[in-house]
Amino acid sequence: MVRINGESMACDGMTIGAYLEQMQYDRVRIAIERNGDIVPKAEYDTVVLQDGDVLEIVRFVGGG
Amino acid sequence: MQYPSKQAVQAALEARHGIERQAAFSAASVAICGLGGLGSHIAMTLARAGIGRLHLIDFDAVDLSNLQRQAYRYSQIGMPKTDAMRQILGDIAPYCEVVTDCVRVTEENAALLLARETIICEAFDRPDAKAMLVNTLLTQRPDAYIIAASGMSGLRTGNTIRTRAVTKHFILCGDESSDVGEDGTLYASRVMLCAAHQANTVLQLLAGNFYE
């Protein structure tokens, strides 16, 4: 299992990119932290989620 | 008018903040990316606190529609925001070194533009620009602290605006949900609350008590 934004998800084995696609995240509006480090955008389609990973996907909203 | 001397200003700041803490503020160089409702108020707050050097970046000019929440004045409509902010800061903190760049920050120029600062405030309005700056800096500048903002629209309670560290170097202020596209317009009150959270984080990082 992978913990994403506090919820356990059965998405081990998926790439981050595939997960984003499935959950319909807009990848130009997010930043992703995985096990304490930021995941560079260029690695979204190559990083494979592992059992025990803890991720946070920060979704930015407009206004400033 | 004649301003008090630099020594007199410094002594007044030291009397309020303590010599050691003021020394950290005076030695600091902080970047503010975007000079809208967030950035203009962050700049005023940090200048008042006696930050030694501010690097202000924005490509836009002051517009009538900005005055409802941004720190500018009617006499400044049409001026580049970088010039308008320099003018305001000159009368708030005459000895603060203000460096300006009237450019759009991009993935390509961000690291070079911000090479001198290790504390960087993200104060853009568009979510894609916010994400771009945060991702670019956290990838290319692992030494930098980025203080970003997300969610300060509408007129719900101000108590939902908060500060948290997503990682050690990525600090996020805001309610993280109210979108200007969905929750109506921006009001000075909530934008200023968020800007104050960002400025407060800068001061806490410099004082060395943010992670306590």
Fraction in beta strands of chain A = 25-35%
Number of strands of chain B: 7
Overall pLDDT confidence of chain A:
96
Order of helices and strands of chain B: HHEHEHEHEHEEEH
Mean pLDDT of chain B, rounded to whole units? 97
Q: How many H/I helices of chain A?
A: 1
Quick synopsis:
Chain A has 64 residues and is mainly beta. Chain A is built from 1 helix and 5 strands, in the order E-E-H-E-E-E. The longest helix of chain A has 7 residues, at 16-22.
Report on the structure:
With 64 residues, chain A is mainly beta. Chain A has one helix spanning 16-22; strands at residues 2-4, 7-9, 30-34, 37-38, 54-59. In chain A, strand 1 and strand 2 (7-9) form a beta hairpin. In chain B, 38% of the residues lie in helices and 17% in strands. With 212 residues, chain B is an alpha/beta fold. The mean pLDDT of chain B is 97. In chain B, helix 1 crosses helix 2 (19-27) and helix 3 crosses helix 7. Chain B has a seven-stranded mixed beta sheet with strand order 3-2-1-4-5-7-6, sandwiched between helices. Classes of the chains: A mainly beta (64), B alpha/beta (212).
Describe the structure using short key phrases.
heterodimer, A: 64 residues, mainly beta, Ubiquitin-like (UB roll), 5-stranded mixed beta sheet, 5 strands, 11% helix, 30% strand, globular, B: 212 residues, alpha/beta, Rossmann fold, 7-stranded mixed beta sheet, 7 helices
Question: What order do the helices and strands come in, and which of them pair?
Answer:
The complex is a heterodimer of chains A (64) and B (212).
Chain A: E1 2-4, E2 7-9, H1 16-22, E3 30-34, E4 37-38, E5 54-59
Parallel strand pairs in A: 1-5
Antiparallel strand pairs in A: 1-2, 3-4, 3-5
Chain B: H1 6-17, H2 19-27, E1 29-33, H3 37-48, E2 53-57, H4 81-90, E3 97-101, H5 110-113, E4 119-122, H6 127-140, E5 145-149, E6 162-167, E7 170-174, H7 188-207
Parallel strand pairs in B: 1-2, 1-4, 2-3, 4-5, 5-7
Antiparallel strand pairs in B: 6-7
Helix pairs in contact in B: 1-2, 3-7
